[in-house]
Specification:
With 260 residues, the protein is an alpha+beta fold. Helix content is 65%, strand content 13%. The protein has helices at residues 2-51, 57-61, 66-75, 82-94, 96-99, 157-243; strands spanning 102-103, 111-115, 118-127, 132-139, 146-153.
Length: 260
């Protein structure tokens, strides 16, 4: 039993040593690729992409197909992805107005990040108007194929603070605008209630006015009737006096017609 356990321990140690040797070998190989990627990015792809900052170069290359662009670069000794190459060229061209002419420092601080099948190379450049950072992505193999790239202007502390202030003002302004709108909506609820109450009072007022008009009309009719009765008595008395009669009982007034 002890011999069996000893054999297992020996095999385990051998496998562990084998794995360590493989890791060291892979690490050295990866380090070599990283150093080569730095050289290819700074001395190979950067000068090519920098040339696209001249006016009209991007427009001229846009007339070619992606396959033709890949063929042109391959003849120059570089393997590129057509779409990624044109995207990087457009980034350099568009940012020319912000940075001006750019140059590579004598001893640039080049960093490489390993991202699965890609190597992301970053290094600073000096610009006439503004400094920038170049980002070039190549394949993690022996071909170092250009997959993408960009020229990113570096903002100063003052510019960053200005952007932060504008974002703060925009956010606070939006919040206050919404609060004011909510306040106006809440205030309008009282006006709506008053309008509803006014609409309810109108029929009641109309009914009261109609009742008053009816009472006045009825009163006028009663007054007219009383006036007609008095007028009939006066006319009957006048006729009796004209005829020399002592009483007006024998006279009947059928109707009265006023003549203007």
């Amino acid at each position: 039993m002890k011999k069996f356990l000893s054999l297992i321990c020996i095999l385990t140690c051998m496998l562990g040593l084998t794995a360590c040797g493989a890791d060291n070998k892979t690490s050295e190989y990866q380090s070599e690729k990283i150093e080569n990627a730095k050289i290819v990015a700074t001395e190979g792809y950067f000068p090519i992409l920098k040339s696209f900052m001249k006016e009209g170069i991007v427009e001229a290359y846009s007339e070619y197909t992606l396959e033709e662009i890949e063929h042109f670069c391959e003849q120059s000794g570089f393997v590129v992805d057509g779409n990624g190459f044109m995207s990087a060229a457009e980034s350099f061209s568009l940012n020319y107005a912000k940075t001006g002419e750019i140059t590579l420092p004598e001893n640039p601080d080049v960093t490489v990040t390993v991202d699965d099948d890609a190597l992301i190379v970053r290094f600073p450049v000096n610009g006439e108007k503004k400094n920038a950072e170049v980002e070039i992505i190549v394949s993690n193999d022996l071909f170092y194929k250009l997959e993408s790239g960009a020229l990113n202007p570096v903002s100063s502390f003052g510019e960053l603070m200005q952007k932060a202030a504008l974002n703060t003002l925009l956010g606070m302004g939006t919040v206050f605008a919404v609060l004011i709108l909510i306040s106006l909506i809440i205030a309008s609820f009282g006006l709506i209630g008053k309008a509803q109450n006014a609409m309810k009072k109108k029929p009641e007022e109309k009914t009261g006015i109609d009742n008053a008009v009816a009472q006045i009309t009825k009163q006028e009719e009663i007054t007219d009737e009383s006036d007609d009765t008095e007028l009939v008595a006066v006319i009957a008395a006048a006729v009796a006096a004209y005829e020399g009669s002592a009483s007006s009982d024998g006279y009947v007034v059928r109707s009265i017609r006023r003549i203007r």
